[in-house]
Amino acid sequence: MSSPHDSVPAVSDHGGSVPATQEPIPDPGLHKHTWRPTDVDDRLAKRAERQIAAMFVLSMLCAVLFVVAYFTLEIGDSFDTVGYLGASTVALGLSLAGALLFIGVGVIQWARKLMSDVEISEPRHPAKSSDADRAATLQSLDLGAKDSGIGRRPLIRNTMLGAVGLLGLPALVVLRDLGPLPGDRLARTIWQPGMRLVRDVLGTPVKPSDMEVGDLINAAPEALFPTEENGYEEIEGVELNVEKAKGAIIIVRMEPGDIVSTQGDNWSVDGIVSFSKICTHVGCPISLYERTTHHVLCPCHQSTFDLADSAKVVFGPAARPLPQLPLAVNEDGYLIAQSDFTEPIGASYWEREKES
Amino acid sequence: MSVDTSKVATSNANKAATPKNGGPAGSIANWADERLGLATVMKKNLRKVFPDHWSFMLGEIALWSFVVLLLTGVFLTLWYTPSMGEIQYNGSYDQLRGIHMSEAMASTLNISFDVRGGLLMRQMHHWAATVFVASMMVHLLRVAFTGAHRKPRELNWVIGCLLLLLGTLEGFTGYSLPDDLLSGTGIRAADGFLKATPVVGTYMSFFLFGGEFPGEAIIPRLYTIHVLLIPGILLALIAAHMLLLVYHKHTQWPGPGRTEQNVVGFPMLPVYAAKAGGFFFIVFGVIALMGALLTINPVWKFGPYDPTKVTAGSQPDWYMGWPDGLLRLMPGVESVIFGYTISWNVMVPILIVPPLMLVILMVLPFIESWVTGDKREHHLLQRPRNAPTRTAVMVALMTFYGLAWAAGGNDIIAIRFDLSINQITYFLRAAIFIGPLIAFWITRRWCISLQRHDNETLLHGYETGVIMRSADGGYSERHLPIDGARAYEITARDRDEIYELESDVDGNGVAAPGTRVNALRAKLSKSMFADNVQKPTTEELTEAHHHAEHEHQLQAGLDHPADGHQFDGHDSAVEGHELRSR
Asked: Which residue does chain B place closest to A278, by CA atoms?
């Protein structure tokens, strides 16, 4: 904007609306408007016009391309072409982007090159209303209050406030049926004494001899895989998911001598221990096991538990050890639970200690 | 260029515009006005002036990406099924065919692989959401750093903060809808947050999920919240935000002719309508490009939700990263009082700190105006350096945010940089407290130094890079006065006033009411403003100029601004001018 010729001494005593005593430098006033090349050269204006029209034509072209791509490119079996993006997605996206961007660029070019670029000034007004308006409003409010008699009849006012306030109660109560009350549901899982531990995908039971030292098995209660043979009740849908979310366990085998402590006496079988898979922090399933340290890490917030030492927390935001599932072996040689967990699994909650 | 473009013009048109009657547009306008009476409102607003600055465009990105969200979102609702009913997937994606999953997940896969343009729209919707929250946040920083949240715009600032909160919640409910493994993990964590709420936690959890997690109610309920409840409130608040913007008129940077009493810029019609309207297409187009070329949330790779599974490196969308980071940093503290469990390890990072941060953000302009006692309206923006304490507070908050955010990616950082996740976490636990303090101190001193530099420039001119050697061999750098408009811009700011406690007793010698509050105010005012550098007075400027003129006489040589090429033969300022010859 300013060429070297424009530069004036930092202090000038001409122009400006603010008294010089207050402001060290008076307001020099708005920049003078200068012509753009397109304002004074018809050739350049025509060229800008052609540029803008060309953008709009390109946009039309892209819109047509979009329709062509929509009908010619297969979706479904071509999702892995063009860098796993899908030919249809890329073609549709690029043509749509072109159709939109060319309009945008064209319109802005129009505004910059051909529309008036004369800056105009508009006066501001205080945000508040004029004093007269305020007075009139207050007077109206006053009149309204007086006409209603709300000030003179406190009985009406107070009972009305009470009535309207109490409307909050129905509004709240009507939400009651959003869900059942918790009861002691969080404290129980589907595990029962004698229930076999089964692999979580196949549902096959586990024998201690199936496991090498260092192995980890993601397991589930057998009741989630009901068959005629095991005689468990049919379970599906919501109930299945709920019990799955609570009953998931991990079974690990370590050298019996490596076990420093367990949460109960005789809860392990030949170095095999089993813990709830659900993190006691906010309930992510835990899955990263380091066999040399017997540490298991939650991938969500990195709480780390030492499975050799009652799954106590060695690092991270969890506050409590993973609950341990007491193990035994049944007469057929399969791993079974001695009982349900002896404390609630998963994230802590207010009445947790009350129920266990 | 042979055309002289330097002459003064007052209009681009050759002739004055005269209102015309008739024409089809005229008759439509007439028809509409006779029924709606819009002319009275429109006459004021059609040529409403908006000032021009690149930073005023940030909020516009947020606005337009919201429009893109509405458009792409409606498209997605046409195929998405908000149900947790279990079905077998039989669509086009080979790897998951035959797998049991919720209808929500299956319909998301259907949109991605069997609806033409579906994956594009899904990715555009997700990208637009990240852009929406990001642009709101950058816009918020722009407003705070330039003091645009001062009177009369405090309420609009509060609305803006609520928009940021709602946008974040809208994002969370949105990315939870596909019911894939990653989002399901997020919902399970959210269930953990609810359960950590004292007294009513388990009830809230059971009511939200319609029973025990996961239940079958959460997806349809989140869907209603995502497509109806929050967008409705967002829309209303955005409307209020824009109406207040129009009513207050946009803030502007100080400059020649730009004062607290006016607003200088281009009129809405046609220039801003074109620029803003064109910008909508650009934002839309860029999001379309992102949707076409950048894969986001590939749910088909995560697979359907299974409460017993999780992937390593689980990360929420970026705007959820900082509370997630706080969650990772918080040590595992839990207390049991009278048999009731209080999970500080979840409550502090999720239920206490983020809402507290939002409240801090919302009250910033009110605290500032209370300390300064400044009840005037402000329409001129402040440069960040001219409010050192405010700038430093914002940078401290940003540092806190950034460190918490980094903590949210501590596993990724550990893997990428081959570091110990434990050490990163220990470091960040300390840094989250110390970092903001250091950032505050550095920023504040930095701002004050910049203020000092402004004054140097005003009083002694700018550094030309021209080194003068005096007759007795001393070297000095030549300073030249700066451009008048620039000098005005630098001085166009208020002098800070420090509030001082007049007397702590009233007329009767009794301790005056509110003295303690006022003493705090005085103390804050002093610590906020006492170190600031004020702009020079007229006397200081005059004196500096006398001094400069004297200096000029001593080392006469340059009679025009130096461009740094005076001595290398490339001097272009004045043709044929040879400094070397003097």
From this structure: B308
